[in-house]
């Protein structure tokens, strides 16, 4: 057997990676009284003991260098009502939090209301991986809203779960 695609160009790889549905998270913290954050669809549960999750951040991110020095980072697993939020959080410019209701902890973790889960985390490790950085985050506390369905990213589109 021979697979048809041997040219591993960006477009082909993006198409292949897009075949795997994933959730979308907001990674955010308050810096000098202002919420700073980004959206990521490369999020995964890593370990129960210790409680770890991972998110992959592009090396070209201008937001991550601001976040990597904070005390606490909020991870919000976005809900199905967050179509617009997922887009604005992923934008390169503008107010990424426009129109969103936010909650902030005393340690500065920022959470988006209406999310399916909130994870209060700190950076455990950062691992270089090609054109991305794998960031392992240690969970210190969490809140789950199981009645809210998550938004799904698949085929470069935001989608909803269907029964």
Word description of this protein:
With 163 residues, this protein is mainly beta. Helices cover 12% and strands 45% of the residues. It has 3 helices and 12 strands. The chain starts with 9 loop residues before the first helix and ends with a strand.
Main features:
single chain, about 160 residues, mainly beta, 7-stranded antiparallel sheet, 3-stranded antiparallel sheet, globular
Protein topology:
Layout: H1 10-17, E1 22-23, E2 25-31, E3 34-40, E4 43-47, E5 52-58, H2 64-67, E6 73-77, H3 83-90, E7 102-104, E8 110-112, E9 117-129, E10 132-144, E11 151-154, E12 157-160
Compact summary:
Helices cover 12% and strands 45% of the residues. The chain is mainly beta. The chain starts with 9 loop residues before the first helix and ends with a strand.
